[in-house]
Amino acid sequence: MSVETLLPDAAAEPSPEWFAEVRELARRRDAVLLAHNYQLPAIQDVADHVGDSLALSRIAAESDASTIVFCGVHFMAETAKILSPDKTVLIPDARAGCSLADSITADQLREWRSEHPDAVVVSYVNTTAAVKAETDVCCTSSNAVDVVASIPVEREVLFLPDQFLGAHVRRVLDRTNMHVWAGECHVHAGINGAELSAQAQAHPDADLFVHPECGCATSALYLATSGSVPEDRVKILSTGGMVDAARATGAKEVLVATEVGMLHQLRRAAPEIDFRAVNERASCRYMKMITPEALLRSVREGTDEVHVDRELAERGRTAVQRMIEIGNPGSGE
Ligand code: SF4
């Protein structure tokens, strides 16, 4: 059946035939389909597993499937390849990048490190394989505080690439010898404190779920500590943590400050709760490059394969494994 038949209108929901065809082609390819929480609803629904980047990479490593189809952005597929070097890893569109991962290159990191030769380099998992290879220990938004706290207080820390997550860690640990790279994700930086405050006022009984990468994370903490919003209503969470919190909260309404694709999983996890985006325009164009058409082509033709140089992968794997050993790595973005 042709792609046109399965997807008659690019704007329309994919047909049940598309769903069946993707599943059948994945089975024939011995592939496991993984979808990040920010993917389009149809991609999330057809996948074997939906989650955050680190949880998906672990599932990929533990899976018996010989091929991993990673519906997410490129650094996530690279991380899966680093943890599963002998498996074939596909991403339906290799152009799906990430503005945060692209905010620092391996050359820039080497230069920064040369200015602080005794520092420990901590990288958020949203980095390229080349940057991970220059990193001492990776972290997720769940264990960033634990990772930095595990470093002797007299050692300098270089934290990258996300300035909002770095500011959060520095504030929690009150650590003055921690330098933070000025990177940001264009989507999360666009969710600002003014919008969050206005929404919190308009919905006085709602819980606030805030991703620490967001430009509004500082405002969320301020709202909580200034008494504007009861402290127990503000939850700074990774995307995986948001799903757990949705199941546990007693709130009827929740304001969500992260990429809007997250709402689909939250509504599935707790259909009785009214989830609202703090900023409905917070959509990652890179994540949305994984279209139903691209996924169909990927399982049909084996495109686009992700390759990571063996030596780079080896060094990056050490940094990722250190991350897994510290605290509760939970989840990444
Ligand atoms: S939402 Fe931001 S951090 Fe996440 S993949 Fe998109 S650009 Fe990267």
Write the layout of secondary structure elements.
Elements: H1 3-6, H2 16-28, E1 31-36, H3 41-46, E2 49-51, H4 53-62, E3 67-71, H5 74-83, E4 88-90, H6 106-115, E5 120-124, H7 129-132, E6 137-139, H8 144-149, E7 157-160, H9 163-173, E8 178-180, H10 186-189, H11 193-202, E9 207-210, H12 217-225, E10 234-236, H13 239-248, E11 253-257, H14 262-269, E12 274-277, H15 292-301, H16 310-325
Parallel strand pairs: 1-2, 1-3, 3-4, 5-6, 5-7, 7-8, 9-10, 9-11, 11-12
Helix pairs in contact: 2-15, 4-5, 5-16, 11-12, 13-14
The structure holds iron/sulfur cluster.
The site of iron/sulfur cluster has 13 residues, from helix 10.
What this model shows, in words?
It is a single chain. With 333 residues, the protein is α/β, with parallel strands linked by helices. Strands 2-1-3-4 form a four-stranded parallel β-sheet, with helices on both faces. A four-stranded parallel β-sheet has the order 6-5-7-8. It has three domains: 3-96 and 286-302, Rossmann fold (3-Layer(aba) Sandwich), CATH 3.40.50; 101-184 and 313-325, NadA-like (Rossmann fold, 3-Layer(aba) Sandwich), CATH 3.40.50.10800; 187-277, Rossmann fold, CATH 3.40.50. Helix 11 (193-202) packs across helix 12 (217-225). The longest helix is centred in the C-terminal third of the chain and has 16 residues, at 310-325. It has helices at residues 3-6, 16-28, 41-46, 53-62, 74-83, 106-115, 129-132, 144-149, 163-173, 186-189, 193-202, 217-225, 239-248, 262-269, 292-301, 310-325; strands at residues 31-36, 49-51, 67-71, 88-90, 120-124, 137-139, 157-160, 178-180, 207-210, 234-236, 253-257, 274-277. Strand 9 (207-210), helix 12 (217-225) and strand 10 form a beta-alpha-beta unit. It is built from 16 helices and twelve strands. Bound molecules: iron/sulfur cluster.
